[in-house]
């Protein structure tokens, strides 16, 4: 299945479903920040996520318990690849440099990244 990009609202609902692993619409709403969206709004968005292949459900009478079909890691890979190719010409170096210049990476994080690079070199 080819993943599609999520809207900000869809991604927010997926974040909740990834966290709770499965739940009903009311369970998703409970996890959302104030002001809480209307039940019908969340229900509609979850059904859209279902048609996009991100969410599945189990029916219990008229109730539906929803769960992710796409893992958070799968979507992270998709989103990162899209970011890298769309804005940084597939260059991790360009992306890293951008975050350093924007001061989004502090020295501690930079040290951790360097440790990861050293570990990769030793493999």
Automatic annotation (TrEMBL):
Which terms in the Gene Ontology molecular function aspect does this entry carry? DNA binding
User: Which keywords appear in this protein's UniProt record, sorted alphabetically?
Assistant: DNA-binding, Transcription, Transcription regulation
Biological processes annotated in GO = negative regulation of DNA-templated transcription
Which InterPro entries does the UniProt entry name for this protein? BlaI_family, WH-like_DNA-bd_sf, WH_DNA-bd_sf
Q: Does the keyword DNA-binding apply?
A: yes
Protein family per UniProt: Belongs to the BlaI transcriptional regulatory family.
Q: What is this protein called?
A: BlaI/MecI/CopY family transcriptional regulator
């Amino acid at each position: 299945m080819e993943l599609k990009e999520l809207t900000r609202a869809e991604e927010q609902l997926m974040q909740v479903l990834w966290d709770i692993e499965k739940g009903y619409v009311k369970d998703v709403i409970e996890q959302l920040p104030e002001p809480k969206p209307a039940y019908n709004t969340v229900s509609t968005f979850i059904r859209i996520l279902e048609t996009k292949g991100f969410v599945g459900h189990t029916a219990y009478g008229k109730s539906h318990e929803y769960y992710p079909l796409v893992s958070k890691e799968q979507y992270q890979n998709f989103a990162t690849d899209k970011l890298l190719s769309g804005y940084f010409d597939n260059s991790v170096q360009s992306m890293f440099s951008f975050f350093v210049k924007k001061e989004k990476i502090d020295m501690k994080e930079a040290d951790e990244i360097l440790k990861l690079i050293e570990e990769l070199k030793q493999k």
